[in-house]
Design brief:
Elements: H1 3-46, H2 56-62, E1 68-70, E2 76-78, H3 83-87, H4 102-106, H5 121-129, H6 137-143, H7 147-153, H8 162-166, H9 180-186, H10 190-197, H11 200-206, H12 215-219, H13 230-244, H14 247-251, H15 258-265, H16 267-278, H17 289-293, H18 310-317, H19 344-385
Antiparallel strand pairs: 1-2
Helix pairs in contact: 9-10, 13-16, 15-16
Length: about 375
């Protein structure tokens, strides 16, 4: 074989290789695309030809409990939905406005989905909460002023969103049972919930008492404000008074409503009220209710662990009055009016002055009045003599 023949065979071989490679590059993507088209068509054939607005279109894929999506950060998002859970939620068959379909919250049911996937599962949770704003307008307006939404807008995606508190497809009434409210808050505020659970309010709540405060009774629901502000502190006595100044409610527990009244008439309460009425945003260092009784760990006043029981009172007072002597707490008579049974000496002194002051002032007024009458009579009698 001549050198020319060898060269021809080499060129032919190279040509065949190039043709085969070109065929693979061209035909393989076409085949893959054709296969994907067939699979997509199979899914489309299994779905209604036109979106119906109900959930059947979406549940063809999402009824699979193992359905997942991989997000940009590599985490897996479970996208399966149990139809019975959705049906049994507040948005399901029992909804007064009618059961909601998937598209009412998620938008278009076009397939395949064109929307880009979120960066992470947490980002998706926050993003999903925005769906709630379409219907719950009033709650959204209140939420905009709250600490949780403010934190999210400042970039803290770990702050609580609608889905964190209410759930997603399994949403139920947030206060059934009532202790569920505080348990929901406890999902994030674990240590606070533990203190509250063992407090006089928490123990009563979990025993079924319908009147004791839950987290939202003190902090609010959607428009929660930061509890460390001067505004919250100055107004906190009024917060406690919503229950403890309610005569009818307190009678059920044998608690005197004089508690709030006595606070307002002593030095602490008078000063705090002055700040609250003039400029509530100015901080005051005078004691409010929770400085003495505790915040979430409030105990019954007579309990051994109470901050205001006689054995612990000096330590509590020294938090503000570090130089207080051992007999310092004796100057405080408590939130009860003096009586013959409760601080009788103070009661008698108070009674003495209640009588003495009107008698003295009345006596002076009587003397002044009689002197004026005497002078007038003398003046007229002098004129008559002339």
């Amino acid at each position: 074989m001549t050198r020319l023949h060898v060269k021809a065979w080499l060129l032919a071989g190279i040509g065949i290789i190039l043709l085969a490679t070109g065929y693979l590059f061209v035909s393989l993507p076409v085949r893959i695309h054709a296969q994907e088209a067939q699979e997509s068509q199979a899914v489309q054939n299994a779905m209604p030809s036109e979106p119906t607005g109900d959930n059947s279109f979406c549940l063809v894929c999402h009824a699979d409990s193992d359905a997942t999506a991989t997000l940009d950060d590599g985490t897996t998002l479970h996208v399966g939905v149990d139809p019975s859970v959705l049906e049994g939620s507040v948005h399901g068959a029992g909804n007064e406005q009618g059961a909601l379909g998937c598209v009412d919250c998620h938008g278009t049911d076009a397939f395949p989905h064109d929307d880009p996937l979120p960066q992470s599962a947490r980002a998706y949770t926050v993003q999903a909460s925005l769906m709630c704003t379409n219907c719950h307008v009033e709650q959204t307006e209140n939420l905009a002023d709250g600490v949780h939404y403010t934190a999210i807008t400042d970039g803290n995606l770990n702050s609580a969103s609608c889905v964190d508190c209410h759930g997603s497809h399994d949403i139920q009434p947030p206060d059934e049972p009532r202790e569920k409210i505080s348990e929901t808050c406890g999902d994030c505020h674990t240590s606070v919930f533990t203190e509250y659970r063992d407090s006089v309010h928490g123990e009563a709540l979990f025993e079924g008492d319908p009147n004791v405060p839950t987290c939202v009774d003190c902090h609010g629901v959607h428009g929660i404000q930061h509890p460390t502000t001067a505004l919250f502190r100055n107004r906190s006595p009024e917060l406690c008074a919503e229950c403890h100044a309610d005569t009818e409610l307190m009678e059920e527990y044998g608690i005197s409503t004089y508690v709030f009244e006595s606070y307002l008439t002593d030095f602490h309460g008078t000063t705090v009220q002055l700040f609250n009425q003039t400029d509530p945003n100015v901080p005051t260092n005078k004691a409010v209710c929770y400085d003495c009784h505790g915040v979430h760990n409030i105990a019954e006043a007579s309990a051994d662990k109470s901050r205001v029981v006689r054995e612990n009172l000096l330590e509590t007072c020294r938090e503000c009055h570090p130089d207080a002597s051992a007999d310092f707490p004796d100057s405080w008579v408590g939130h009860f009016p003096p009586s013959l049974d409760n601080h009788p000496l103070m009661f008698l002194v108070d009674l003495f002055y209640d009588i003495l002051i009107p008698v003295v002032v009345g006596g002076f007024l009587f003397l002044i009045a009689t002197d004026i009458i005497r002078r007038i009579r003398k003046m007229f009698s002098g004129r008559s003599a002339e």
